[in-house]
């Protein structure tokens, strides 16, 4: 199946030590600011360069934070989640649902890091073909308007 999630969502437990710049990542989401439609979860929006999360390397942008220090983040507002992060202490234990790995092309047994670019190539050709057809149509319409003869209320 093209563009489908491959495999089951996986969970990871990560402990980060709060650094001078905090935990080193930004979050989005919550019941009042849903990041994904019909999902009030809290997601990692950005990993800050040289922050605790970046130096650890396991947390990725797009990962869903399930719990902080054992406390689940279900049905929290964005502000309440931010407050939990701020008050979590120096050593912060996170339960993460890693973002699904998207794979273009049919599912097959490929080596890690190898991907199919066929879908992307066909998409590019389709966009180019549509642009050429549209440009031709516009040129045709302009020629048609320019060769109508005199205009006016007759």
From TrEMBL:
Keywords: Membrane, Mitochondrion, Mitochondrion outer membrane, Transmembrane, Transmembrane helix. Its main location: mitochondrion. GO terms for molecular function: protein kinase binding. GO terms for biological process: cell-cell adhesion; establishment or maintenance of epithelial cell apical/basal polarity; receptor clustering; receptor localization to synapse. Residues 13-100 form the PDZ domain. GO terms for cellular component: basolateral plasma membrane; cell junction; mitochondrial outer membrane. The keyword Transmembrane helix applies. The keyword Membrane applies. The chain crosses the membrane at residues 122-140. InterPro entries: PDZ, PDZ_sf, Synaptic_Scaffolding_LAP-MAGUK. It is found in: Mitochondrion outer membrane. Binds (via the PDZ domain) to isoform 2A of SYNJ2 (via the unique motif in the C-terminus). Interacts (via C-terminus) with RALBP1. Interacts (via PDZ domain) with ACVR2A (via C-terminus) and ACVR2B (via C-terminus). Forms a ternary complex with ACVR2A and RALBP1. Interacts with MAPK12. Interacts with DLL1; enhances DLL1 protein stability, and promotes notch signaling in endothelial cells. This is Synaptojanin-2-binding protein. It comes from Phoxinus phoxinus.
